[in-house]
Design a protein that fits this description.
Two copies of one chain form a homodimer. Chain A has helices at residues 2-25, 32-39, 53-75, 80-97, 99-106, 117-138, 142-168, 180-201. The longest helix of chain A is centred in the C-terminal third of the chain and has 27 residues, at 142-168. Chain A contains eight helices and no strands. Chain A is mainly alpha-helical. Chain A has two domains: 1-50, Arc Repressor Mutant, subunit A; 59-201, Orthogonal Bundle (Tetracycline Repressor, domain 2), CATH 1.10.357. Chains A and B meet through helix 6, helix 7 and helix 8 of A and helix 6, helix 7 and helix 8 of B.
Chain lengths: 202, 202
């Protein structure tokens, strides 16, 4: 009994240590050995819980998606007409306050989906928060669903582009007018809103 | 004389070999040693032209930006009212036909800008194709310039988001309705256009 509790603790400790190692060494340059070294355990010990690095990475990415979806869901519980805007703001807040998690979810290749279907499951769940909201707005017929999905892809890709550009610091180098860097995010969200209103009218 | 021609050839050969090595091993996992090995030259030889890996990478990224800007400029030489759309289409075409170059420019940390100012210079030049077009449309007053730059950031970030999502293949996993994946790019570009028209009217 005590042993199995310790094993559970070891699994959690591996996940936590891997996140720290990734934060220190970057998403692509870490190894199971680094994790063992950080925990001061034998190099073989992490393999009792994760067959290889990809399985440990998949566990981390899965948890990022669960955390991310919970954050979006929590922050967007407002009046329906404001829900989309609130969800967009929550998305951008998550990206800027948790850049490493964001990069693990959206900026690096996922572990093989065939081997790690759970990662995909939780990723699709996060996307569905947006898709289902838009389906509620437009309707559930195949035509409406398609419209909702095209809008969801537009919204998501625009937010994702802004989030990654903010994280890259490239705006520092573009010699932008005063205020542009600070206002770019809000401006883009306003433009997304204008596009959606205009599209709805057509 | 012959020696200096050979040295020039060696520099070019290093750049070419590094691009191949990056294509094979990924953007973050290559070394100067790999380049030397591919060229079957001594491990020290590439250092005659590039003090370290970052300098060689900077040369490659700089060339990507030059190539990219030339491509955008060439493809968008159409009627002024269609120029923005043509530039957007050229951007997306470049991203999907040259994914490695695109990743080197926009998907990986740049070499230290303080050490490699040329990379920044050519990156800003590429952004200026868009910025200057919008300044021509709106006017050159500080207020108009700011508006142009905010629009440029919105356009660029939306295209960048779509380009990276297309490259990631994540759409394959979202169980989208028929046609959504194929139409997402054109739809997003239409939405960007709607946002810009709507913003102009305000």
């Amino acid at each position: 009994m005590s042993k199995s509790i310790n094993e559970l603790k070891l699994k959690e400790a591996c996940v936590q240590a891997a996140r720290e190692v990734i934060a220190e060494r970057g998403v692509e340059a870490w190894s199971m050995r680094d994790v063992a070294r950080k925990l001061e355990i034998s190099h073989q010990a992490p393999y009792r819980h994760f067959p290889n690095r990809d399985h440990l990475l998949a566990e981390i990415v899965k948890r990022c998606f669960i955390d991310f979806a919970a954050f979006l869901d929590e922050k967007s519980k407002v009046e329906p007409q404001d829900e989309l805007r609130a969800m967009g703001q929550a998305y951008m807040t998550y990206a800027s306050t948790k850049p490493l998690e964001y990069r693990l979810m959206f900026g690096t290749p996922w572990p093989d989906p065939a081997v790690h279907p759970e990662v995909i499951k939780y990723a699709v769940h996060a996307f569905d928060l947006l898709r289902q909201h838009l389906i509620q707005v437009h309707g559930t017929s195949p035509e409406h669903k398609k419209k909702a999905e095209l809008e969801a892809m537009f919204i998501w890709s625009s937010l994702h582009g802004m989030a990654t550009i903010e994280q890259s610091n490239v705006m520092n180098h573009l010699v932008l007018s005063n205020g542009v860097q600070d206002e770019a995010r809000a401006f883009s969200m306003k433009m997304i809103g204008l596009a959606l209103s205009s599209h709805c009218e057509n």
